[in-house]
Every structure is written in structure tokens, then in C-alpha cells.
Amino acid sequence: MALAVKQPGSYIAKHVYRLAETIDVGHFKASWEQTVQLCSNLRTRIVMNEGASLQVVIDNDISWDETSDLSLAAYLDEELVMEYGSRLSRYTIVGDSNGPKYFVWTAHHAVIDGWTVQINLETLQRIYNNRPAPTLQPYANFINYIRQLDQQAAADYWISELEGAQRPTFPPAGPLFQAAASDTSATRVLNTRIAFPSFDKSSITKPSVLRAAWAIILGRYSDTDDVCFGVTTSGRQAPVQGLLDMAGPAICTLPVRI
């Protein structure tokens, strides 16, 4: 959240879902409102208290944004800033009576990750289809686990793990000063197929293969055999009971040294 304050509008994801013609919009909205009540991450705000960030879950924080007959493109182009104390999950239905309708869910990454999005959508699907909603575990249990970690022991571990690590820059930095400079941009789509070993024939996982490949690339271009880079994991491996059934972000970015 602190990084988002420095860069307003960043760390915000806009999810757009086209609603089939068979969808009852009224029932859909009611189902989403029930989903919001069941999934505390959708009612979470972050506030500052004595210099520290606190997560606050609002009992009733359901409100649909008004689109004022905006087109989907126009609505998505609107600049949206989420800051301390503001709603971090917003939603609306975009579309007129004659054209397709879209459910637009805008959320800050402080309250969602990929795993959580799937939990939220599964809950919505079950409620819309009049099926029992999944039983979710309190996200507060994960927060309590993090707060109880030995911060000094963690710091000592990473100091030891990264001691003496080189810090190669990739790609290499250009000249400090240039006589003339210009900004250019280009987009190129690269499609390739990677042959991974099948899981029934090898104990090597795909992430391990990708990390090793990236380490080799960094080593060659940086001319070093000691590389370090960041990797984002789901964080669901933490020893917290019921973490797989918690609606809330658990992703963690860690340095990997090879």
C-alpha cells in the first residue's frame, strides 16, 4: 500500500467479465453482494494508525459504482486512485440495454492475489447457482501468524543467505551521460514452446526449470556464476491451518540466489 501511495493508480487490477445473455443481472448483483459479505477481503480497507498500517474489515461495505452510461472503454480509461482509508474493491455493471453487459471488478493488490480471486469467483458461482457457498477460514489467522514471526531470526537468516552476493545489473546499464536522448517504445509478441519434463517421469517442477534457465541467462549476460533475483510465490505453503481456504493475499516475493 505504501508503494501505491508513491505511485497513485499503481497496483490496481481491473477484471472485466462479459455477462452471457442468459445471466439475470439482478440475481447476479445480489449474488455478488452475498459474496462480498462472505469474503472479508472484499470489505477490507487499510488505514494508518500511529504510523502503522492496519487492516480494517467493514461490516457493510457494498456499493456499486455508477457508470453514467459510459462505454466499457471509457470506464476503463478513467483514472482510479485507491489510497489509505478508501475502498479497495469496487465493482459495476457496464453496458446499455441493447448491447452486451460487463461486470467490472477493480481491486487493489493489497486485498487480492491470484488464489484469492479464484476463491471469490467460486463463491460467486456457487451462490448464483443456488449451491452452498464454500466454507472459508478467517484470514486473520494468517495475519496473526505473520505478526508472531521472529523478525530478528528472519533478518539473520537472509543476511547469512545473501552474504557476499554479487549484484549484477541486467540488462547492463548504459553510459551515464549521453549527448542526445529520445524515448521510443515498441511492442513485440514472442511465441515459443518449451518442452517440460512430465511430472510422472521427473521430480523436477516447472518453476525449478524456469528459475534455473533464468539464472543461466543472468549469469551469461552479467558474466558471473553467482546470481540473485526475485521470485514471487503463492505463499500458501506457510504452516497456517486452512490457508488454502482463506480469501486474502498471501503472495510473497523472495530473493533466490543460485
TrEMBL record:
GO molecular function ontology, one term from the record: catalytic activity
Question: Which Gene Ontology BP terms does the record give?
Answer: amino acid activation for nonribosomal peptide biosynthetic process; secondary metabolite biosynthetic process
Tell me which InterPro entries the record gives: CAT-like_dom_sf, Condensation_dom
A GO cellular component annotation here is:
cytoplasm
Any one Pfam family here would be Condensation
Q: Which SUPFAM superfamilies match?
A: CoA-dependent acyltransferases
The protein, known as: Non-ribosomal peptide synthetase
Q: In which organism is this protein found?
A: Hypocrea atroviridis (strain ATCC 20476 / IMI 206040) (Trichoderma atroviride)
- Lineage, broadest ranks: Eukaryota, Fungi, Dikarya, Ascomycota, Pezizomycotina
